[in-house]
Amino acid sequence: MSVASAGEFGLIARVTARLGSGATVLLGPGDDAAVVSAPDARVAASTDVLVEGRHFRRDWSSATDVGHRAAAANLADIAAMGAVPTALLVALCIPTDLEVRWAEELADGLGAEAALVGASVVGGDMSSSPTLTIAVTALGDLGGRAPVVRSGARPGDVVALAGRIGYAAAGYTVLSRGFRTPKLLVEAYRRPEVPYRAGPQAARLGATSMIDVSDGLLADLGHVASASEVGIDLRSGAFEIPAQMRDAAHALGIDPYAWVLGGGDDHALAATFPAQVALPDDWRVIGRVVDGTGLTVDGKPYKGSAGWDHFR
Amino acid sequence: MSVASAGEFGLIARVTARLGSGATVLLGPGDDAAVVSAPDARVAASTDVLVEGRHFRRDWSSATDVGHRAAAANLADIAAMGAVPTALLVALCIPTDLEVRWAEELADGLGAEAALVGASVVGGDMSSSPTLTIAVTALGDLGGRAPVVRSGARPGDVVALAGRIGYAAAGYTVLSRGFRTPKLLVEAYRRPEVPYRAGPQAARLGATSMIDVSDGLLADLGHVASASEVGIDLRSGAFEIPAQMRDAAHALGIDPYAWVLGGGDDHALAATFPAQVALPDDWRVIGRVVDGTGLTVDGKPYKGSAGWDHFR
């Protein structure tokens, strides 16, 4: 059945029926607005939009995959402030010939990813559009802590990373060359594994700055360096390149560091910490904050790859 | 200059520079998420999306008009819960050949409409897309009051309306027939005048239900009747039809009540109140809540017009 034959209200009812509701939801979907708890009298809020053809392809990702990824991109932004996500709102623009099943499975993915952190889809809007578009807003609870912003890094801090890096970019490259394996990389592109809990954890540990790596590690740490008016030097030896990534890079004639340093979409978290902070296993040190400006790798400007140039 | 030549970060910088920031904003645009105050430990949140060709046309409305309308549609949803809007987040999907000036003027409209209620644009996202799309999320403060939902209307309540009704639908009809006047109607379509303050006012007065009239008065009060398990009877004599609307309807061979009862987009607020409540001038009584189901006009089922059928 197409969404046109289900009708707007029919589709909303079908999709809403599939969504759960968590403890943070005081009033869920179905009224003019939802009401979400904001225990410390502040709410963190972020919006990210995915456009078919630019951010996803229906032949590369299932509807559930796209739902997971749309939710993850937004939930990661909330985690990157040191907050715990509470709610998602979703504006869905869909071609009238789209199958209802696709929209339902998208909702399943959105709801399942939100449930990983105890959040729920609390509202949304639907419209027909020639271009399949998913705009998601995430809300979050800072738990009484100050938000961890981009501008607090200080010379002497260590730079640390939580989560995988380069996997999704490698998966994207593999898919765009017409392959469907290695599964590790392709699945990482389809459904990022975001280190959500590392965000509030970093805030509690006294992180001086934090960012969600969505544009690529060098680009995003470049935002931190610029906002903090410092330089950042990364150690290339700090990054583990898994065998599947190394093999795929070799087969495709690509430097795997192009994926690690230049690729986005894994939604790793990068943060800076005072040097004396004992970091738990979720975080691994990848570099340090220095006097100066901009990013270096092993003390030198990075001129490695098309990946990096492209993402700039 | 096109948005493609400005680049994503250039465009974001230009647009952000035009936005003001109100007292509710604890952390504005530029980080992974914004932080907005939520004084009573709850936040009302709603999302509405406008798609070019379906919700607006660039030859009918200026970019500033579209910004006003996109903001108004969302701010009205917050007001309809009895809340005061605090913040907007905007996902903007734009064709690469769009002029930067259009995006800047859109931001001006969004910011100016938000400023009417003391709210600010606190964040957003941009992507290129073949289809110009504006998804807005509004946040709001309930001020310690219970949200006014759709399900609380009780037989014996009066039904009251705040704001203009039918003006925008009439303006849309006039534009779609190729006319640019009467100015009153065309301007009402381009920039709704939303009775924002009437929302929290109704909550304080003890409104039993409330809704933002966006799909048409009968359709939206139909949602209230259905959620509240009551009937609603409207008095046709309660609606003032301004001379310009009457004249335009006559010239076009249209029943003006099709616009008043079936037209959306003015973002009037409709609410039900206990009969003993003394209503201020912002609210005028247009009917009453009765035992039963569904909507009647002057005690009879309304079969007036294509407008009504169309909006169903």
UniProtKB/TrEMBL annotation, chains A, B:
The keyword Membrane does not apply. Mg(2+) 2 binds at D48, D77. Mg(2+) 3 binds at D32, D77, D212. Pathway: Cofactor biosynthesis; thiamine diphosphate biosynthesis; thiamine diphosphate from thiamine phosphate: step 1/1. It catalyses: thiamine phosphate + ATP = thiamine diphosphate + ADP. GO terms for molecular function: ATP binding; magnesium ion binding; thiamine-phosphate kinase activity. Residues 154-297 form the PurM-like C-terminal domain. Pfam families: AIRS, AIRS_C. Residues 30-140 form the PurM-like N-terminal domain. Substrate binds at H55, D265, W308. Mg(2+) 5 binds at D215. Mg(2+) 4 binds at D32, S46, D77. ATP binds at G124, D125, R150, S214. Keywords: ATP-binding, Kinase, Magnesium, Metal-binding, Nucleotide-binding, Thiamine biosynthesis, Transferase. Its EC number is 2.7.4.16. HAMAP family: TMP_kinase (MF_02128). Belongs to the thiamine-monophosphate kinase family. Reaction mechanism of ThiL seems to utilize a direct, inline transfer of the gamma-phosphate of ATP to TMP rather than a phosphorylated enzyme intermediate. Catalyzes the ATP-dependent phosphorylation of thiamine-monophosphate (TMP) to form thiamine-pyrophosphate (TPP), the active form of vitamin B1. This is Thiamine-monophosphate kinase.
